[in-house]
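Bench notes, afternoon.
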Amino acid sequence: MATYRTIQDSFIVQGFSPLICDICNFSDITETISGYVCRNCGIVLEAQKLQYDRPYNTDLVQYATGIGTTQIGTRKERVVSPNSRSLNRLSKFNNIIDNDKIAYAKARKEFSGVLNRLGLGEYKSTKEIALANFKEIRAQLRPGSKYRNVEKLVAIILYFRLRLDSISITMTDFFSETELTKKEFNDFFTQVRVYFPEYLERDRKNYISQRILEVCEHFELGMAFYHLSKKILHKLWEVVKCTTDDVLAGLVCSISGLCAYKGKISVNAICRRLGISMSTIQVQVKRKILKHFKVDGFVSLVRSSDLLERILDRLGLLERQDSYLQNDPMNE
């Protein structure tokens, strides 16, 4: 706290007179928390406690005082300054922000938003790896290309990352929570797939097993359903592998439901859960499975379930005791 002598000395140095009490004209003034107080009568002076006595320098340009990074002097100061052209050029340069930095910040926000909307907000490591992929891939895409669109590029990169990390997600939810349409998805998929060589070598069966387990737990079918579906997947892999992972999961789950869990679960319910259409499963059964085993008489997916049972029994996947199976020509 400044004393009277300190105040008086500062006034003398600056060429000002010391404070004087307005009531008793006494010059013994002290500084308190409330302000300047007369020691003689105890009156608080009206003089402000804090006071700036430094004279204003009109030649001082505002940028020299460090007011911030977004302004170099006021407009009037920049005009009258002999370096006005340089100041304007520096001001414009200071406001330039790298487009790549803007895109990267936008991508980070978009990744978080999509993962949260999909209910996958806890996968922070997936988000960080996807951000690194975004930065690397976008730098290699041709400037001005539609594939550099932040929202759509984020969506397709996130699709690859979820598949590589074996994180299950339905395509219905994916399209509803991202900016990609089905047509754009195929276009972007072909363009970006070259940057994910590990995608073709990934363990597809691991992801499909996760989807089968999801169906099993959702409908409370027990682990027997899960193991039967996995056995069907491994037995029929070479026959049905040329399709998407979700369709494969729906196919083996539908076959298990039709052959061993009738009345407990429907094919339509399985397809809705996995985000695929029932007609797709029917085409897979008719054109691949029945054709491969040379079985005729297909009517519909549900009405022809007995044909699927005979095929599974031939493969040793069902424990049946029907006597007619012993004389079935399919066993030859």
